[in-house]
Every structure is written in structure tokens, then in C-alpha cells.
Amino acid sequence: DIQMTQSPSTLSASVGDRVTITCRASQSISSWLAWYQQKPGKAPKLLIYKASNLESGVPSRFSGSGSGTEFTLTISSLQPDDSATYYCQQYIGSLYTFGQGTKLEIK
Amino acid sequence: EVQLVESGGGLVQPGGSLRLSCAASGFTFSSYWMNWVRQAPGKGLEWVANIKQDGSQIYYVDSVKGRFTISRDNAKNSLYLQMNTLRVEETAVYYCATERGANSGHGQAFDIWGQGTMVTVSS
Which residues in chain A have Cβ-Cβ distances shorter than 8 Å to B99? Predict the structure, then answer.
């Protein structure tokens, strides 16, 4: 099975900061990677699909990059509403796996 | 409005069974791969199973193989998860989710999620 490892596990940043979250796959997944945002008590929300494609309706301050085994989610200018837990997910092959999550807090 | 609504969660004893349902509305259910994802309290997301548009392909995470069965009824716009021999560690919120793109092949991001249904396995 493909393992997904996110870093950091927790992150604290200020409004206006540029924030980057990293996701590493245990083997190449080409660009078959998604990023989700989840707020407490809510279902996850798709932000980025196929590594770098912004889902409709998602603010342009979110962006994704990478291919193969290393990927990043970047928030260009952090907003108070971005406080949440972020998950990466690989969807190559038969079985899908999520990263363990990165909790983003606003200072 | 595009919507997925899960139901069927509740309290069950270890070794017991439960059947979850997911009702779809606002889109052509039969055109989408469907998934179940779970989240234990305070933990991360875990993909559980998925099923092709016509039910001809099904995949499971290793830990539920032989105990869980995913199925769908396109005439009723519904997805199901039959869970047998439940374990305490399977206490979680169970979400259903669609794979992005009508009539797509296997392997897409999950763009529509339900609100989840809580399953508690405890004696």
C-alpha cells in the first residue's frame, strides 16, 4: 500500500503569512493527489485535485504543486477562515490513502 | 441542490452488524464512482471502500475485507455499507463521497461529501 506522510503535523501562522504544507508518497503517484480542508464537525472539502488543479469555488490563494513523490499545498496569504486541518490523498491504483493531517492554527 | 445524506449509524456491540445508507440527490448518481471514508474520534481520514458506477468493480481497505460489503442501487440513488463483525476500533464517523467527474474512470478526487453518520462500537 502507498503511505502518505504530511509535514508538519501542526502549524501556527499569522494572518497574511505564506504557508506551505508538504506531503510525501512512499512511491510515485504521478499527479494523482488531492488536498482537502476539514473544519471541526464538518465533512472534508476538496481544494486541489490532480496535484495542482484548483477546485471550482476555492479561493485562488490556495495552490498545489508537485509530482511523483513530493507535493506541496501553499496558502499565499493566510486568512482567519483558513484555520482547519488539511489532508492530502493519493488516488492512484485500486486503494486510496490519506495523509495523517496537518492542523493549521492562526496566531 | 447536490447532496449526500448518510443514515443508519448508531451504537452496536463488538461483533455486531450495522448497515449504513447514503441517499444522493441533485445529480445523476449512476454516473459516479462512490466511496465510504471513516474518521475515528480525533483522528484522521481513512478510505474504506469504493464501487464503480454499475457496481462491477469494488475495492476495500485490507482491514475490512471479508467483513464489510459496499453496494449501490442506482434506481434508488442510494449507496450502502453492510458492516459485520464490528470492532471497537471501528468507532468513527462514516462519510460517503463521490469521485469527481461523471462517467469517469477509477481514480478521482472526492468532490461531494455527506455530513457523516456516527457508528459507535462498544459493549
Answer: 91
Instruction: Give the three-state DSSP class for A90.
Output: strand
Nearest CA in chain A to B52: A94
Contact at CB, A43 and B114, closer than 8 angstroms: yes
Over residues A40-95, the pLDDT tens digits come to: 999 999 999 999 999 999 999 999 999 999 999 999 999 999 999 999 999 997 89
Question: pLDDT tens digits for B62-105?
Answer: 999 999 999 999 999 999 999 999 999 999 999 999 999 888 88
B4-16 burial, b if ≥16 CB within 10 A, otherwise e? bebebbeebeeee
Distance from the A90 Cα atom to the nearest Cα atom in chain B, whole angstroms: 8
**Cell 461483533 maps to which residue?**
B15
Q: Measure the CA–CA gap between A2 and A29, rounded to whole angstroms.
A: 9
